[in-house]
Amino acid sequence: MTYHLHLTDTAGQEEYRGLWSAANTRDADAFLLVYDITSHDSLVALDYFNDLIEMESEERSPAKPPQIKFVAGNKVDLAHDRQVASAEGLNWARDHGCGFMETSARNMVNIEETFALIVRRVVAARRGQAAPPTRQANVPTSGLQNYPTTIEDNEKGQASDANGKKKKGFFSKLSCCTIM
């Protein structure tokens, strides 16, 4: 089975808030809300988008599966500039019924894993077996030692195992998903 992901990246910018209309949110199966761990204001800004999702979900047909919400704290590669503790991001996600992950787009930390988890939860919800929100943060507990720290460390940005061997990405193993 092939799954198609339609991603709308508003970057939280005011001029793109019109994309968050009923036409674009009511039929969505999932939402990925991203904040910057180096900006506490970006976490606070998630409240606005979460409120929009909640308002639109009230109008959603009860015959449709519940919408999946996931929060990603991005830029863990800039941990030295961190303003939002992992626990604070996790607590925000729990309080709003969201899954949680910390990521680094620059170093490709937990990027594929985040999308793979969202796809699995959407599939489960469609099957009527929705998984509950994540209760533990899926973040490296002792820094980024298992991940490349710079793009030069790993040209493709893939995680490496303890022996330095590149790990295959989730989607490359499955061949079930297409990101559009």
TrEMBL record:
Keywords: GTP-binding, Nucleotide-binding. Pfam families: Ras. GO terms for cellular component: membrane. It comes from Orbilia oligospora. Residues 135-151 have a biased composition (Polar residues). This is Ras-protein rsr1. InterPro entries: P-loop_NTPase, Small_GTPase, Small_GTPase_Ras-type. One of its GO terms (biological process) is signal transduction.
